Amino acid sequence: MVNQPEMRVISYSPKYGEQTVAMWRESKERAIGVKELHSFENHLHFLNHILPDEYQIELAMLGEEVAGMIAYNEKEIGQLYIHRNYQGMGIGQILLDRAKAQSSGRLTLYTFEVNKIAQRFYEKNGFHILGRGYENEENLPDIKYEWARDLEA
């Protein structure tokens, strides 16, 4: 039996950029059934130069492998993706709990309507639907969710 390395959460570093983008793209494409619109290079540029302006980015690491990523600030989760081989192991929960703990007490996020797994995950974690049908680059219907610390049961 092979021991799996312990999961740790680190601040994003560009040295993990290519691995993070590959995981992100594969996870997203699998979740929504649509190929990524942007080139790998543009996606890497977005991760390294645009996303950090608005969000804190953290990686869930298993050894030197990126198992998941989250981008959040005190009011919103911009991205949350888990490597397809590690979904259902609690990694998303750990990352989400970190964002909740550092939030203002309220968080919003969007998820694609076709991504039923994400919807169940967010609803199980106290997120409530605020609206539907928002526009995005993929031209797919999405759902806006909100979590509030004071509404959590």
From TrEMBL:
Residue ranges of domain N-acetyltransferase in the record:
7-152
**Which key words are in the record?**
Transferase
A molecular function (GO) held by this record is:
acyltransferase activity, transferring groups other than amino-acyl groups
Q: What is this protein called?
A: Acetyltransferase (GNAT) family protein
Q: What InterPro entries does the record point to?
A: Acyl_CoA_acyltransferase (IPR016181), GNAT_dom (IPR000182)
Query: Which CDD domains does the record associate with it?
Result: NAT_SF
Source organism's superkingdom?
Bacteria
Q: Which Pfam families match?
A: Acetyltransf_1
